[in-house]
Design goal:
Length: 695
């Protein structure tokens, strides 16, 4: 354990005690959300981001030390493990350094060097590596070549050599591209052809694009220094100390070591490093976008009429109650039968007392919105455009079949649009994150890391917001701390059989729902009409006693303590500090009592864009338009203008002053005013700028 603590604390530069306590909690089965919220005294108040870093670094530590044991065992089995060698290996704290150190001892296939050793040429190789001034006239060319092969392998396996070349590649490697056999005319990778730039200057999205083009057989891509000469010169400076016959042989061996062994090996390493960093960047952007999308403002529990726009097959209409249950559905044809469409919509609005209308942003969206806004419903109704990315995926999913098995996929799509307006988070968790339509090159990055990051993001959002126990879907419950898919199903089954939960403690009656699951999940679950008013707050049941003591000291009930701020004025938090209930926890409790069960998401705003403009052809250069950001990448942001084609704000058109990441200054669902700076009607491309003044 101590070696893990030391490794993690040093890598992350964190207090060792906080790391130790956090690792103990992790090993005890605590979730990140639970630790960040309810164990602040133990973690030192570390947030979710840092705790996740500890979790991930702990995994690397376990892999690293396991690898070290394998290496020690391998060297020992060869009879080469001395105490000195063991101490050196145990002192290494970097995986690359460890593998470099192991390389000379690593079992390998027969090489030119091993063949030369079999021929007894190792003494000559030692003479060359030591630059001894001996006569080489007695050795034939093949013998000298064999000795040089041995020296070349030694040089290539030398940790200092390898680190020198790594550093050289990082500073000097150049990306070069050329046509491969599979290159297509008018290729989408045309802009990447003929690249010749330093690798460290290439942005992450370009790296991923290059790897994709290579994988698809359209481009050849290399990552190596421009000239071998300088790399070899850089290498041999540390090896050639004399000027004699053997030093000349050593020089030849160094050249061979670089060209035949080191350069291909380090280039592969360098490619992997570039890919890893590009993956990390893309996954970070994707996860940040996903968080913003999931945390979009909910309309709340209002009765919604949802419309999935369409032309040929009409617009699918679905009426939902305040909890998202389907009440009825129909199809309207505004283009060909406006009168009947108006009759159906007004009837639904009146019959089901509709409070809001959600319109999907797909084909015929803008036309449908204008049609709906032209109808006099006799009352104020919220009309909002909803991003429908992934709705079709949901419609065909097992989840949709379970929820709406009696209805076809078109109805399910409309229902999903309506529910997204009511509560984006609750609906979007039913869809595979990669299908939601945010991020870049998501199919090209490390899928395991992507899946892990996205899962962490969804889990974080769900637990930050909290979940209503009596209405939540199986999918939403599965992301609650400590629950998962199996227990989520058991909760819903129990709810269906026994009715609504009246208290958090009732969860312990659910099949396989033990004390540990209760500890990890209870604080994130809400019961609005529960027996205990604290069940509708983020106060954990383990701290109910503290709140009850506060109420007793204030001379009131717990309910009064929550509802009447004057009852809390004279309370001294320090009085309630005891054991692992410190100020961190007490401040959180006090804040929760101030605003019980508050929704941390932003306030809902009705979305409508550019009245009278619904086609790409209606847009002109230099036009000022309003849009909604739908996706953010490393190179810019995509904007929905209401014309079925997203415009792109390149990062160069975001601001004149310096900024870091695009996601630092823009966010998903953000309203922006943009200027059209380029149009390509044929390729359906719109270039946008946030710089409204041409100057």
């Amino acid at each position: 354990m101590q070696e893990y603590i030391k490794y993690v604390s040093e890598k992350l530069m964190l207090n060792a005690t906080d790391v130790e306590n956090t690792i103990k909690l992790i090993e005890d089965g605590c979730t990140v959300a639970f630790m960040a919220r309810y164990r602040k005294e133990l973690t030192g108040g570390l947030d979710e981001v840092i705790i996740n870093s500890i979790v991930n670094t702990l995994k690397k530590a376990k892999t690293f030390f396991a690898r070290k044991e394998v290496i020690l065992s391998s060297i020992e089995s060869q009879g080469l493990l001395t105490e000195e060698l063991k101490e050196k290996i145990e002192a290494i704290d970097d995986i690359t350094e460890l593998e470099d150190f192991y390389l000379p001892y690593k079992p390998k296939r027969r090489t030119r060097a091993t063949i030369a050793k079999e021929k007894g040429l190792e003494p000559l190789a030692w003479a060359i590596i030591g630059e001894r001034n001996i006569s080489l006239a007695n050795f034939i060319d093949n013998e000298l070549q064999g000795a040089r092969d041995i020296v070349a392998e030694w040089v290539s396996e030398n940790p200092i050599s390898r680190q020198k070349m790594r550093n050289y590649f990082k500073r000097n490697a150049v990306i070069k591209t050329s046509k491969a056999k599979g290159y297509k005319e008018n290729s989408k990778y045309e802009e990447l052809l003929g690249i010749n730039q330093l690798a460290y200057t290439a942005p992450s999205h370009r790296i991923l694009a290059l790897f994709r083009a290579e994988a698809e057989g359209e481009l050849k891509v290399s990552f190596s220094p421009q000239e071998d000469y300088y790399a070899i010169e850089y290498l041999i400076k540390g090896f050639i100390k004399r000027d004699n016959s053997t030093s000349q042989q050593k020089l030849y061996a160094c050249e061979d070591a670089y060209k035949r062994l080191l350069a291909p090996s380090i280039e592969n390493e360098f490619r992997a490093l570039l890919k890893e960093k590009a993956d990390e960047k893309a996954i970070y952007v994707f996860s940040k976008n996903l968080r913003q999308l999931l945390m979009a403002a909910p309309l709340g529990e209002k009765r919604v009429l949802a419309i999935d726009p369409g032309v040929r097959t009409g617009c699918k209409v679905a009426c939902l109650n305040a909890n998202g249950r389907l009440l009825c559905h129909d199809v309207i044809f505004p283009q060909t039968n406006a009168a009947e469409s108006i009759r159906i919509l007004t009837y639904f609005v009146k019959t089901y007392d509709i409070e809001a209308i959600a319109i999907g942003n797909g084909t015929f969206s803008k036309e449908t919105e204008e049609f709906v806004r032209s109808i006099d419903f006799g009352k104020e109704i919220i009309i909002s455009i909803v991003n429908e990315n992934g709705a079709s995926v949901y419609s065909a999913s097992a989840v949709a079949r379970e929820e709406l098995g009696d209805y076809d996929i078109t109805v399910r799509g409309a229902v999903s649009i309506g529910r997204r307006l009511q509560d984006p988070l609750a609906e979007l968790v039913k869809i595979e994150p990669k299908s939601i339509g945010v991020g870049q090159y998501q199919h090209d990055v490390n899928q395991n890391l992507l899946q892990e990051s996205l899962h962490q993001t969804v889990e974080s959002c769900v637990n930050q917001v909290g979940v209503e126990l009596n209405t939540a879907s199986t999918q939403l419950l599965s992301y609650v701390s400590g629950i998962g898919p199996s227990l989520a199903k058991n909760i819903v089954d129990y709810r269906n059989e026994h009715g609504a939960f009246s208290s958090r403690k009732e969860l312990l009656k659910v099949k396989r729902f033990g004390e540990k699951a209760f500890e990890q999940s209870a604080g994130f679950l809400r019961i609005r009409q529960g027996e205990n008013p604290l069940d509708n707050t983020a106060v954990h049941p383990e701290r109910y006693g503290v709140v009850e003591q506060m109420a007793k000291d204030a001379g009131c009930s717990v309910k009064e303590l929550i509802n009447d701020s004057s009852k809390r004025v004279d309370l001294n938090l320090y009085k309630y500090v005891e054991g692992n209930c410190g100020l961190h926890t007490l401040i959180d409790i006090f804040n929760e009592l101030e605003k019980p069960s508050r929704d941390i998401r932003t306030k809902f705003e009705e979305v409508s864009l550019n009245k009278g403009i619904n086609k790409l052809e209606q847009i002109q250069n230099e036009q000022i338009l309003e849009g909604i950001i739908t996706n953010i990448t490393a190179f810019g942001a995509f904007v929905d203008l209401g014309v079925h084609v997203s415009g792109l704000i390149h990062r160069s058109e975001i601001a004149d002053e310096f900024f870091g990441e695009v996601s630092d200054v823009l966010s998903i669902n953000q309203r922006v005013v943009v200027r059209v700076i380029s149009l390509d009607y044929e390729r359906k491309r719109i270039g946008l700028s946030l710089k409204l003044n041409q100057d």
